[in-house]
């Protein structure tokens, strides 16, 4: 990890070439220093949440983004070892079969606002997510206790509820677990 020096602002660290980068960019799996020193001597054990895939470069991305045609990892490791089938073989559970039967597109492309099927069928019948049961905003829990939050949403395709805190994980497993099926998401936190 890079030390804080007097040449950079308080929220920055100096690269090996004395270039300054934001502290939050250190060991994030992406080189931000031109000399790549912000990704050297990083802790080797970086855990991902259960619903995340660990990229070859150490980044964590949503498992639902695997084999979706987009390089979410930045090193393309989330798009490797993906089988590309023609519709005659049938589409996988991770793919949407276009209505004309000539094309399979990644499931994440279904209802994304862009016609990916030549016949446009991946954008037909889409319904934007609507939260029908929001999670509680205030919850009293005894110290060391366990609590659970639920959220229900409806949409086409079925929404996946992903619990986040300021775009990061709420807390690490096993203390926090989350589950989503049928548009109902549950977050369980132990040892609160």
TrEMBL record:
**Stretches assigned to the Ig-like domain:** 129-192
Query: Record keywords: Hydrolase included?
Result: no
Question: InterPro entries from the entry?
Answer: Ig-like_dom, Ig-like_dom_sf, Ig-like_fold, LDL_receptor-like_sf, LDLR-related, LDLR_class-A_CS, LDrepeatLR_classA_rpt
Quote the PROSITE patterns the UniProt record gives.
IG_LIKE, LDLRA_1, LDLRA_2
Say where the protein is mainly found: membrane
Subcellular location as annotated: Endomembrane system; Membrane
Going by the UniProt record, its keywords in alphabetical order are: Disulfide bond, Glycoprotein, Membrane, Receptor, Repeat, Transmembrane, Transmembrane helix
Cross-referenced Gene3D superfamilies: Immunoglobulins, Low-density Lipoprotein Receptor
Q: Transmembrane as a keyword?
A: yes
Pfam families according to UniProt: Ig_3, Ldl_recept_a
Please give, as recorded in its UniProt entry, the membrane topology of this protein: Single-pass membrane protein
Entry GO CC: endomembrane system; plasma membrane; receptor complex
Disulfide links within the chain: 8-20, 15-33, 27-42, 48-60, 55-73, 67-82, 111-126
The identity of this protein, by name, is: Ig-like domain-containing protein
Q: Which organism is it from?
A: Loa loa
